[in-house]
Design brief:
Layout: E1 2-3, H1 4-14, E2 20-21, E3 28-34, E4 45-50, H2 51-56, E5 66-70, H3 75-80, E6 83-86, H4 92-119, H5 123-134, E7 138-142, E8 147-150, H6 156-169, E9 178-182, E10 188-196, E11 199-206, H7 214-232, H8 248-258, H9 265-272, E12 281-289, H10 296-309, E13 313-317, E14 322-327, H11 333-347, E15 349-358, H12 363-375, E16 383-385, H13 386-390
Parallel strand pairs: 3-4, 4-5, 5-6, 15-16
Antiparallel strand pairs: 1-3, 2-6, 7-8, 7-11, 9-10, 10-11, 12-14, 12-15, 13-14
Length: 391
């Protein structure tokens, strides 16, 4: 089944000067049939007919079918039925074969989508496969406007300025819906608003290599459903554990602390095995790239950078930022800020800091404070402590 508007859009590329009256564009119809002269109709199907057949029929207010009519029927027919008018003299077989091939092509694409979704390991790989099918670049953007995944041949430099256009035009878009937008640069795009759990994403395909057709919308709709499922299964590499060998056990324990109101004994024992103890003090840092790109390679780069530049540091990715926990004394706070400012200048990374606090109590609250500080870091030269904001 395909929405009427998609079929009509495909026909308009073949018959650009012809129009019709489609009262129910979002209703779905099945494969084409030839009009039956006894006046019967076959429910939600594409029905190929002539103007004379429609004018002589006694059909009234049928919502389900889409009539592809050779020649212009009378106005009464146009007022009550969904009709796309085709040129006089066109052969029924040509129209029937065109629509059949459209259904066949879409069936092949949807099957290929399903098989690809089952075979790839993560969203990044899936974007590459589908971009080759649609022959246009695809991007995945999170709720903070981070570019978190993209197809292989995508041009980041040209698309990043359009992200603000995407979010502005799609700001009021319904959850799990698809809209078409036009960029200020003149390019069209399809945008799917995907919600999974407490996270929101925009899946975007941009008409850079070729125009977007109605069939692309059908494929993109099915593609979005597969992406939504993969995101719910946490198959997006950003946000999955990025571990360095020496910190894997410690990282796992710190991640657990983020979800606990108070640390349990098992978690504390695991942290002690890494040489971190409750009598020590710790700062929590939230980090983000200023260029709006937070794909897996950027996340891993930030983690490794922080662990190499900061002593006693364990860095890892969370849903919306890179988090670094640093074992340090309160007296070292100013030195820490200095190191982060230097990284900000050199690497274009901004930071929010939750001030040094003894032990692992209130760890989840301290984590939220660092993220809050990160939000305000742009107004504070890229580095800010939560305590400064609370003053």
């Amino acid at each position: 089944m395909i929405r009427k508007e998609f079929i009509v859009n495909e026909l308009k590329y073949r018959y650009p000067e012809i129009a019709g009256t489609i009262h129910h564009p979002t209703l779905q119809v099945g494969r084409p049939l030839i009009f039956e002269n006894d006046g019967r109709y076959s429910g939600a199907h594409v029905i190929v007919c002539t103007a004379d057949e429609l004018n002589r029929s006694r059909l009234t207010h049928l919502d389900e079918p889409l009539f592809l009519c050779i020649g212009m029927p009378n106005q009464q027919v146009l007022d009550i039925l969904d009709v796309f008018v085709l040129p006089d003299g066109e052969h029924v077989s040509i129209i029937l074969n065109f629509v059949q091939r459209l259904f066949d092509r879409l069936d092949e694409w949807l099957l290929e989508l399903k098989l690809s979704a089952e075979s790839v390991e993560n969203v990044d790989e899936f974007l590459v496969v589908v971009a080759e099918m649609i022959q246009n670049p695809i991007f995945l953007i999170d709720e903070l406007n981070h570019l978190v995944a993209q197809s292989d041949f995508s041009d980041i430099a040209s698309v990043m300025p359009n992200i603000s256009d995407i979010m502005h035009d799609a700001n009021n878009q319904a959850q799990n819906s698809i809209i078409r937008v036009s960029f200020s640069s003149g390019e069209d795009a399809l945008v799917s608003h995907i919600t999974t759990g407490d996270r929101q994403f925009k899946l975007v395909v941009i008409a850079k290599e070729r125009p977007l057709y109605g069939s692309d919308e059908v494929v993109f709709e099915a593609f979005s459903a597969h992406i939504r499922l993969m995101l719910s299964e946490q198959k997006l590499y950003t946000g999955i554990k990025i571990r360095t060998n020496h910190n894997s056990s410690l990282e796992e324990a710190l991640r657990t602390l983020l979800l606990q109101k108070q640390p349990d004994q098992t978690t504390l024992d695991q942290i002690r095995q890494s040489g971190w103890h409750e009598e020590d003090s710790y700062a929590i840092i939230a980090a983000d790239s200023n260029n709006g790109v937070l794909r897996s390679v950027e996340v891993e780069s930030i983690c490794l950078l922080l662990e190499s530049r900061l002593s006693d540091c364990c860095a890892f990715a969370t849903e919306a930022a890179v988090i670094a926990v640093v074992k340090m004394k309160y007296s070292e706070t100013e030195a820490l800020q200095g190191k982060l400012r230097l990284i900000n200048e050199e690497e274009n990374i901004r930071f929010g800091i939750c001030d040094t606090f003894p032990g692992f109590r209130f760890f989840s609250q301290r984590y939220r404070q660092s993220k809050y500080a990160l939000i305000h870091s742009d107004d504070n030269e890229g580095v800010i402590c939560f305590s400064h904001l609370a003053e």
